[in-house]
Amino acid sequence: MQKIFEVIQKLKEAKSTDEIPAILYEVSELVEFDYFLLGIAFPNTITSSDILLFDNYPKAWRQAYDSEGYIQIDPIVKYSQSNYLPIKWSELGQSMKLKKPEKDLMRQASSHGLQSGFSIPIHGTLGEFGMISYGSSKKKFENDQRFMEAIPVVQMILPAVQDTVKRLRDIQPESSDVKLTPREIECLTWATEGKSSWEISQILGCSERTAIFHLTNAATKLGANNRYQAISKALLSGVLSPALF
């Protein structure tokens, strides 16, 4: 219990969000899990949000996740959108009917080292949405004791994490709002459906070059390196409707 209080105190004394990853890693050592992820979207307006994301997930998995736009089919994201209770990843299939792409995603995550873990949804009073997750490279533990001990610890620390993030965001310069044009939103929306630039041009009645132009502009405004990362940021931030998940 003393270590939990020490972690909470470190969060209270943090001077920058840059200090949060190290504290989250300290928690992972405390609960004896290898990996952590904290992702929260803070809405600025109806169409834009700031996204805070910290993790130490395997780099190869993060790259695959972003480039393939897996946020659209991530069952953990779907679960967290409409639930509040913690969930073990192995129990996702019991809480929601997983489709083949979702099952494949979880298998891919496992192949990259995220063998097991749990997530706790985050829903703030000002519309914040996200999750905190801890994962292990071990497929199975001898029993569920590890989860029974780890989940309450993270639940105790989570309010301090949220308070710290809010406090530090309030004293840091506000980032500019992301505002996409109607055409950029249309192109990005069809991209979430897996449409190619050529297919989008046919749907919207414009040239393929024009469709690529709008997609590139949208990615730039969202601070994304490619259209897949742009889709992830737009969906998580609320620039695109959550109904597209």
Order of helices and strands: HHEEHHEHHEEHHHHH
Counting DSSP H or I runs of 4 or more residues, the number of helices is: 11
Oligomeric organization of the protein chains: single chain
Strand order of the largest sheet: 2-1-5-4-3
* Ends apart, CA distance between termini: 39 Å
- Shape, please? globular
CATH topology of the largest domain: Beta-Lactamase
Radius of gyration from CA coordinates: 19 Å
Main sheet summary: 5 strands, antiparallel
Structural class: alpha+beta
Strand content: 5-15%
Q: Round the mean pLDDT to the nearest integer and report it.
A: 87
Corresponding CATH architecture of the largest domain: 2-Layer Sandwich
Query: Tell me, what is the CATH class of the largest domain?
Result: Alpha Beta
Name given to the CATH homologous superfamily of the largest domain: Transcription factor LuxR-like, autoinducer-binding domain
Low-pLDDT ranges:
172-176
Tally of separate domains: 2
**Total E-strand runs:** 5
Q: Name the helicity range.
A: 40-55%
What do these coordinates show?
The chain has helices at 2-13, 20-31, 59-67, 75-82, 92-95, 100-111, 145-171, 182-192, 197-204, 208-221, 227-237; strands at 35-43, 49-55, 87-88, 116-123, 129-136. It is α+β, with helices and mostly antiparallel strands. The chain has two domains: 2-171, Transcription factor LuxR-like, autoinducer-binding domain (Beta-Lactamase); 182-244, Orthogonal Bundle (Arc Repressor Mutant, subunit A), CATH 1.10.10.10. Strands 2-1-5-4-3 form a five-stranded antiparallel sheet, sandwiched between helices. The chain is globular and about 65 Å long. The N and C termini lie far apart (39 Å). Residues 172-176 have low confidence and may be disordered.
